[in-house]
């Protein structure tokens, strides 16, 4: 299965709502930047990463794909997954200029496309190609009701609807106001509305410092918080470890970590209890597997971060034994991809061959931007 072409693409997809905000970002579109890899058997694999739909930085990713990685792949056998990943990840010239960021997320798109290609060639869904599902039902927690831009009354209304009508038993709320007391009031209102049996996680998106987090956690602990995600600056291992020692609220993080080594450092320091790898930030499925195995060896649960379409993470989460739940964010226009099915607060296991990057032809033509 020789690789005959590697074609980058940039798609800017409108959200299902006017805009969304967390403590550090506000967006109206999501960028899906990736690669289409074609083999000599006529099959094509699609891979992608996620961005804020900022065309200049998106072009850095596609340039890395077309100018640095594509030439290393042409003529290679797409079935040699581990060897090709190492060839690209350890290519001296690219490694010299970046071991995270642009080069890493460009490799993520390539690696996902290669897995997609291999799964299609085998005629199997990714979870089965990897070795089969280890869980029958994958629970979904709803983040889409919890954006910081949603007023408190609408936040309560959406939380109640997610529980009473949609069947969710887990919610995640964004936090990160300049005055943390506002966030406490919002959590209190949701807790009162949904009751004690519902899990409520929170996500700070790296906004606060250690003293602020300690004061906030002291007030939040009685509200039975399931986890506190990204409370502080993403790379600050020491502060996360200190917070983990000072609060009963578990720490979750990983969406802004780009390497297996970064995860190992946080795990080794006792700075994380819920490990959240993302295939679009790590160097694809291959490195995600490394991180998930490391977490499992430390008996830490894995809850993949889903900041994009989610298809690949659904497959990985059904397969990996450390995972029992996954984020649900139906924020991208439904016409963009084959929809992921959620029934009664649980994902329905996908059966179609491939890694799940099921871009529709109409989406590619409608949302494409020049590379």
Task: Give a summary of the structure in a few sentences.
The chain has a 5-stranded parallel beta sheet. Strands 5-4-1-15 form a 4-stranded antiparallel beta sheet.
Explain what the structure shows:
With 371 residues, the protein is an alpha/beta fold. The chain folds into two domains: 132 residues, 2-Layer Sandwich (Enolase-like, domain 1), CATH 3.30.390; 220 residues, Alpha-Beta Barrel (TIM Barrel), CATH 3.20.20.120. It is 40% helix and 19% strand. The chain is built from 13 helices and 15 strands. β8, α8 and β9 form a beta-alpha-beta unit. The mean pLDDT is 93.
List keywords for this structure.
globular, TIM Barrel, 15 strands, Enolase-like, domain 1, five-stranded parallel beta sheet, 2 domains, alpha/beta, four-stranded antiparallel beta sheet, 371 residues
Outline the secondary-structure elements:
Blueprint: E1 3-14, E2 20-21, E3 26-27, E4 29-39, E5 44-51, H1 55-73, H2 81-89, H3 92-97, H4 102-122, H5 126-129, E6 138-142, H6 152-164, E7 170-174, H7 180-194, E8 199-203, H8 210-220, E9 225-229, H9 237-246, E10 251-253, H10 260-268, E11 274-275, H11 284-297, H12 311-319, E12 325-328, E13 342-343, E14 346-347, H13 361-367, E15 368-369
Parallel strand pairs: 6-12, 7-8, 8-9, 9-10, 10-11
Antiparallel strand pairs: 1-4, 1-15, 2-3, 4-5, 6-14, 13-14
Helix pairs in contact: 1-4, 2-4, 6-7, 7-8, 10-11
- Kindly name the structural category: alpha/beta
CATH topology of the largest domain: TIM Barrel
Assign the CATH architecture of the largest domain.
Answer: Alpha-Beta Barrel
- The CATH superfamily of the largest domain appears as Enolase-like C-terminal domain
Helix amount: 25-40%
